[in-house]
TrEMBL record:
Coiled coil: none
Family annotation (Pfam families): Hydrolase
Superkingdom, taxonomy of origin: Bacteria
GO biological process, one term: DNA repair
Protein name in the entry: Phosphoglycolate phosphatase
PANTHER family: PHOSPHOGLYCOLATE PHOSPHATASE
Entry's Gene Ontology molecular function annotations: phosphoglycolate phosphatase activity
Amino acid sequence: MPELRIAGTAYPIQAILFDKDGTLLDFIHTWGNWSERLLARFYQRLEEKGLLPPSLDSETLWGTRRGPRGDIIGYDRNGPLAMGTIDDLLTVLAWQGYRSGLSWAESKVLAEDCRKYADEQLQVTKPVKTLPGVIPFLEQCRNSGIVLAVVTADETAMAHNHLDWLGIRGYFSACIGTDQVNRGKPYPDMVELACEKLSIDCSQAAIIGDTNGDMRMARSAGAALAVGIAESDAAGIRLLPDADYVISSYSELEIWEGEQ
């Protein structure tokens, strides 16, 4: 059986399940762009209706971090944008419309309309890029016979788009979006469904993700290993307390074919 080696320890596994955003693709490059377009459109529409938007920005609403020039440079790994579903984010946004004077029904419709606008802009610009080391690691996995899947809080159709834009969809035997299960992260449902599709037991899979929701999902599913990825190990250990290991780069992982 192939082995995933990390920090000198080998784990026999048959599959690796990856979160998508912040794990395979650069989170801010994609979702920072999307969230800014969504929020700007929403506030523009409120102003067109003669309503004053709440004095909140994406840092407060979504859990993003801005640099000195006002551009998004980071995100709260335990915040709404990182861990929430699209429906969660639209609910947060609809609440802002309600606070500004819209009815709850009007605000929900406006939030969904602005989401469609942000999605359309994303389709045009395709702002995606893989994290460093992703493709070489996927190649190692494929060459060793480890099967791969994606388990994401994003919706399946959008996840497929992102994987296609990155040119890596062919590496994955399954892609499970939050719309395919009753309960999203941190519940085990996505891992269980992915492993069912891969015809393996959850205990034979390792999970790699960038939020503690991913780590808790792995633990609740009885996965072999929960690996967190963060810009620095020190920050990751604090933010991902349920991880078995925290890495800052895919270069810290090795795939071995194991004993014959």
